[in-house]
Hints:
Elements: E1 2-5, H1 10-19, E2 26-29, E3 47-50, H2 58-66, E4 71-74, H3 84-90, E5 93-95, H4 102-117, H5 120-128, E6 146-150, H6 154-165, E7 169-173, H7 179-184, E8 187-188, H8 191-197, E9 200-203, H9 217-222, E10 227-231, H10 240-249, E11 252-257, H11 279-284, E12 290-292, H12 301-319, E13 327-329, H13 354-365
Parallel strand pairs: 1-2, 1-3, 3-4, 4-5, 6-7, 6-9, 7-8, 9-10, 10-11, 11-12
Antiparallel strand pairs: 5-13
Amino acid sequence: MQIAVFSAKAHDRHFLDAANARSGHVLHYLEARLDRHTAALAAGREAVSIFVNDRADASALAALADGGVRLVTLRSASYNHVDLATARALGLTVTHVPNYSPHAVAEHTIALLLALVRRIPHAYSRVREGNFAIDGLMGFDLHGKTVALIGMGKIGVIVGRILLGFGMRVLAYDPRPSPEALARGVEFGRLESVLAEADVVSLHCPLLPNTRHLINRTTLGWMKRGAVLINTSRGGLIDARAIADALETGRLGALGLDVYEDEAPLLYDDQSGRGLRDESLARLITFPNVLVTGHQGFFTQEALTAIAAGTIAALDAFGTERPYPHTLTAPGASSGRVPPPAPHGSASSFPLEKASREKAVAAAAG
């Protein structure tokens, strides 16, 4: 098969070429991101491979279909950047790569948390300048503290397991409590109650209409003053302006982000010579108690190997007309078909309790 690989970086080439060695597909690597303007670059190809910062909206998908594309393979578990309804209507098959390495994101979550509570970035900068003073670097023990995990899919369960090992009390909110987490001693509760008790809050839920800006002025008010917030899930879960105000007043003690709501124009490019034009992000990174990484939680050898293998497996299955287990749309599907259920905790429905949802939505609207 002939495949156009959008948003291709050197690491994509390395891992996809290795995975493709036996299959022999022809991979055409494009640095451009997919959108309605660049979709024409895939003309004459049977398939495209896209990443999280590509935009497969209705216009882009229509242009792909007009150019002969029949398969859209996602090098990600998430698919909120793809208009699945339009893909179905156009007869495009869409696949994704779920569960490529939940350990990668879970361990990055812990790295951000430890770096923040022990002031590692500040200590590193001081020592490089020959300053070994420890004034202002006091942290706190995680042992004996309480963490609230919002979303207990595979990543959330692994984070909980690690933090239980640290001696933390682990609370969680998820509409479908994980049997494994319950067996390990994780306590499930209502959103408002787990936020109110937590010294640390970590987000591991999907981005859906009813979870957008889940952390807003109202839900921040439910949290302990000085709590630490970590987000390695989806940037849109957080209202950036509300978070910046909470940092400024001291309501929020520290913030660790690997994702940001408007990250797409910034991701995976060197922006150092252009200046940061996003005012909300520019404000956030001025705070000394904020640590931001550039959506690298997934970026491990194991995860990239699994992503590449899943991508090539989807191409192999499509080319030989075999079923592929991680297919989101398929030719002949009715327009009312919904994607198959995602793994536990990242399903297409993540309802808040009625009262909590109404409060959060009202706050976000205000």
